[in-house]
Predict the 3D structure of the following.
Amino acid sequence: MLTLETVNELTLKVVSSGNEVLFVKTGAFIAGDNPGPRNYRFEKVLLGPEQNLAQAALGQLFRRAVGENLPLTKVFLNGESTTYYANFGQHVVVYRLKSGEMISVESENLLAFTGECDYSVRFLGKGVLSQKGLATTSLTGRGGSSYCAVLSDGNPIVLSNVISRSTISVDPDAVICWIGRRGFCDPRIGTDLNWKNLIGQASGESYTFDWDGSQEVTVIIQPSERSGGIRLAVD
């Protein structure tokens, strides 16, 4: 069994008690500790983490086409060990998925996930809104060790309407991930376009990802925005 937790907000700690598989962002390993000779090894994922070879090959082509490709390393953990992972001092958030629960995450913000997560890339058709908005990497839980670790530029903010049933609106370029029931938690697009956009007087917040009270969702955002979106102006 695997357990994932954060250390000092900036490092992912993975504890293994048996024969397990972990997928991590390539180059993220920083240290390991185990009794006896080292009992874990690394293998580059050539195509993708999908179990089926054909699906992995097609998935690789699709990820490259939509900009969601992520270099992954497969970690084989054989016995008791503790390993640590990080990425340039970014903050790390760990989430444990329930069975059937799905997390949709920007590929650049994905640090690690366990083998009990079903991996896929879904087309959202929102690439015009954000550099990374055309497709999203999705992980669906199917077991007790369905963990996912994501990265944030700075301390993240977590918004949830699971209890309040409130409306959540966020900047697409600040979103790290959103979590909810599969098929029920994708955002709608809010727009605020008018003639001012054409003369360079846009508010800078013309697009948002919106979830209303009928969608039970948890959204994690970072205090940093990617460079993206539409820029309309007349000079």
